[in-house]
Automatic annotation (TrEMBL):
Protein name as annotated: Glutamine--fructose-6-phosphate aminotransferase [isomerizing]
GO molecular function terms attached to this record: glutamine-fructose-6-phosphate transaminase (isomerizing) activity
Known function: Catalyzes the first step in hexosamine metabolism, converting fructose-6P into glucosamine-6P using glutamine as a nitrogen source.
Superkingdom assignment: Bacteria
Residue numbers of the full-length protein present here: 244 to 600 of 600
């Protein structure tokens, strides 16, 4: 039930801080220690490579997950789009583990890969929001998202839930393998939940940004580097899907390799700056587009902000920034769609779960 909310999407955006806390709870035992099913940890630590298979927003969460499993747990990862992997399987490593990320657990493109992988006899794990869904039943193991039903076609709380669950899993796997991380993941996710709350409480600001940057435009670009690049792609997908504004998310460094030709007077560019190591580079990219007339909306993390930035995100652990930086992008897309009288919860030509290949 969407209650007092005009749309499920807005309700689901608002639920994200609570979902974050629910996940922390769900994965802790009575002593407050993080717990992941033993079989999953063994499968992760026995694998010489993790193959993440997913579609759409879940694919974008997988790109963030790759950073976690590689940087936190030291497991090499490949992330693949399920519809491509189905007919163009790469050379596999000797001991692969397959992880299917799917909110619904029903996506046909992902399921067809699961069926093929099972025939090959490799271990499989589904990360899903729906207990008892097809991909959950058919895989060896399941990790649940605990996000509650997601009704709006545009995925919001499932994306942040996926990222949180992947971060927790990577942290527990690292500990189990004998090389624990040097920060307290539960504490850091708690800080994230508060930061997400601050962002969902800034709706007026987001509505204004949507009005200022997107009310008349036909297209928009999202740029970032490293984890911000992953979130840029998700921001662009959200905007396309519900507002029908043509949008593209790409790596800041790629601008000069082609896309910059599209920049005209007033072209909106959403630039994310949450990653210290590449902050100078992304600032440089913003200068390049501004010199060509672009209208930049700069979203920076506290401590890295500069005068003239549009939005400052509360500071969180550098690996967890996607959980916070995506929130304004979700809200900006929501308001852009609303301003254009689009059917926010049921965008044209789309279904909540895509059960055909
Ligand atoms: O249920 P799944 O996570 O497998 O769905 C995958 C995509 O169809 C889904 O994320 C889609 O891209 C969303 N509509 C994006 O908001």
């Amino acid at each position: 039930e969407k209650g007092m909310y005009p749309h499920y999407m807005l309700k689901e955006i608002d639920e994200q801080p609570a979902v974050m806390r629910k996940i922390i709870q769900a994965y802790q035992n009575e002593q407050g220690k993080l717990e992941i099913e033993e079989g999953i940890l063994t499968a992760l630590n026995n694998a010489d490579r993790l193959y993440i298979i997913a579609a759409g927003t879940s694919y974008h969460a997988g790109l963030v997950g790759k950073e976690y499993f590689e940087k936190i747990a030291g497991i090499p990862v490949e992330v693949h789009i399920s519809s491509e992997f189905g007919y163009n399987m790469p050379l596999l490593s000797e001991k692969p583990l397959f992880m299917f990320i799917t909110q619904s657990g029903e996506t046909a493109d992902s399921r067809q890969v699961l069926v093929k992988i099972k025939k090959l006899g490799h271990p499989t794990l589904t990360v899903t929001n729906v207990k008892g869904s097809t991909l959950s039943r058919e895989a060896d193991y399941t990790l649940l998202l605990h996000a509650g039903p997601e009704i709006a076609v545009a995925s919001t709380k499932a994306y942040t839930a996926q990222i949180a669950v992947l971060a927790l899993t990577a942290a527990v796997a690292a500990e189990k393998a004998g090389h624990p991380i040097d920060f307290d993941i539960v504490q850091e996710l708690g800080i994230v939940a508060n930061a997400v709350q601050a962002m969902v409480d800034s709706k007026e600001e987001m509505e204004k940004i949507a009005r200022d940057f997107l009310s008349t435009t036909r297209n928009a670009f999202f740029i970032g580097r490293n984890l911000d690049f992953c979130v840029s792609m998700e921001g662009a997908l959200k905007l396309k899907e519900i507002s029908y504004i043509q949008a593209e998310g790409f790596a800041g460094g790629e601008l000069k390799h082609g896309t910059i030709a599209l920049i005209e007077d007033g072209t909106p560019i959403f630039a994310l700056a949450t990653q210290k190591a590449v902050s100078l580079n992304i600032r440089g990219n913003v200068k390049e587009v501004v010199a060509r007339g672009a209208n930049p909306c700069i979203i920076a993390m506290e401590g890295m902000e500069e005068e003239g930035d549009t939005l400052v995100l509360p500071k969180v652990h550098p690996l967890l920034t996607p959980l916070v930086s995506v929130i304004p992008l979700q809200l900006i897309s929501y308001y852009a769609a609303l301003h254009r009288d689009c059917d926010v919860d049921k965008p044209r030509n789309l279904a909540k779960s895509v059960t055909v290949e």
